[in-house]
Amino acid sequence: MTEDTAASRSAALGNQTAMRLVFWPKRLLFFAVFVVCTVLLSRAELGLGRTLAITIACLFLLDSALRPLIQRQLRRLDRELLIALQQGADERLRQRYRSYRFLRLVGPKHELLERRGRIEKQLGAVQAAIEAYLVALDEAPRRDVPELARKLADLLYESQRYEAAERYYRISQDDSHANAGVRARIARLVIERGGDPREAELFLRQAIHLADDAKRAAVFRCQLIPLLAERNAAAEAAHELALVEQVLANSADSDDLQPLYQQTKQSLSASRGG
Fold first, then answer.
1. Could you give the CA distance from residue 175 to residue 178 in angstroms, rounded to a whole number?
2. Is 254 helix (H, G, I), strand (E, B) or coil?
3. Are 129 and 155 in contact (CB under 8 A)?
4. What pLDDT does 56 receive?
5. Where are the domains of the chain?
6. Distances from the Cα of 250 to the Cαs of 156, 253, 254, 260, 262, in angstroms?
7. Interhelix angle for 109-122 vs 126-139, to 10°?
8. What does the alpha-carbon distance between residue 156 and residue 48 come to, in Å, rounded to a whole number?
9. What is the 8-class DSSP label of residue 23?
């Protein structure tokens, strides 16, 4: 996430007034504490090593004191946003967010911007939500990037910005964040933009492997079968169709799968020339 700035990516997504990156106050606070401690301790002539050690200890204690307070404030903010949302999505959501001044000063920027993104999305301010998620991605630690990228990709997909959506869906998928639905959506986006069918096939096979139940896997198989038929892999396509039929035969709750199965079967028959 360091190759380009949130502002440049926001402009690339069609924003006319890219979001400004502000200096996060918590960093300023820690820097001020560092400077004050260094100056005061240097006057005590403790030596450079002891001065730095005590200064770092002070910063560690300050951070340890702030963390539980910040987490409590985040949980409280989430509860209040949920209540406001239940009462109707309006300007009260933004007002609740703005009322947490201390949290916005010292809280984790990426988590707050993720919440801001949710608020703006709920209020229909799509571009503002995209901007919030972009900056959140720049600020987030690596472990939180996949989830934020997925939320941004969902928003871009809903906004019909498919090329950008595909890019962030791909970012969201690593070894610890593999998601069947996302893999299948990437496959559809690859197909729709006229990309490599083999790549789309790979993503659909991954989605089938990751599916949490046989019925969902069957849906992905129905999406895979036309790709197999297109490259004349008739035996593989027939095998996948047979697996779908097994699910239909063994599942009591498969009525919604039946239309997709019939459509896929007809498509496969047509590709065979009847």
1. 6
2. coil
3. yes
4. 76
5. 1-140, 142-210, 213-274
6. 38, 9, 9, 17, 17
7. 170
8. 51
9. P
- Of the candidates 210, 130, 196, 126, the residue with the CA atom closest to the CA atom of residue 168: 130
Amino acid at 232: N
Fold of 142-210: 1.25.40
Predicted pLDDT at 27: 65
Q: Give the CA diameter of the chain.
A: 92
Residue 132 structure tokens:
């919030």
Rounding to the nearest 10 degrees, give the CA dihedral for residues 54, 59, 61, 66. 170
Structure tokens at 217: 């896997």
Q: Taking the mean position of all CA atoms in its chain, how far away is CA 88?
A: 25
- At residue 6's C-alpha, the angle toward residues 104 and 105, to 5°, is 10
Closest to 113 measured CA to CA, from 137, 79, 92, 81: 137
Per-position DSSP letters for 172-236, written without gaps between them: H--TTS--HHHHHHHHHHHHHTT--HHHHHHHHHHHHHH-SSHHHHHHHHHHHHHHHHHTT-HHH
pLDDT tier at 262, thresholds 50, 70, 90: very high
DSSP 119: H
The predicted-structure confidence for 176-203, as pLDDT tens digits, reads as follows 889 999 999 999 999 999 999 999 999 9
Six-digit token string for 112 = 């707050």
